[in-house]
Structure formats: structure tokens, C-alpha cells
Input
Amino acid sequence: MRAAVLNHLGIANGPAWLFAEEIASGAVRRLLPEYERRKSIFAVRAGGRRLAAKTTVFIDFLVEILAKNPQFIP
Output
């Protein structure tokens, strides 16, 4: 979806954070912003278990992206 939008192949209904840099630069623009829906992101894990490294890296990635772009936090 991202590749298609960035290559001018159409429009997409996707999360704004996925296109944050392009929206900020003007390369991508939002259509129909009054109809946008916000979706929550949750990181849920089983208590008492050690997390796999890839899970920890992914959660850290989400935290970093959302910290840089607070407008995308529902």
C-alpha cells in the first residue's frame, strides 16, 4: 500500500503514521480528513514471561514513532 501511494498508483486508507514524513513534506496529502478514523495501538504481552528480542524491538519502534508524532496518538 505504501509503495503504491509513493509511486503515484492510487490512494490508500492507511494509518497516518505510515506516511508521516511524506505528509509533512507535502509529497502525500490527506483526502477527506473529516472522515478519518483513529485506531488505537496496543502492545499486550503475557505477564511473567521474558519477551522475545524482536517483540521488544517492535514495541520500542512504536514508542519512538509515536513519541515523534504525537498527533497520531488517539
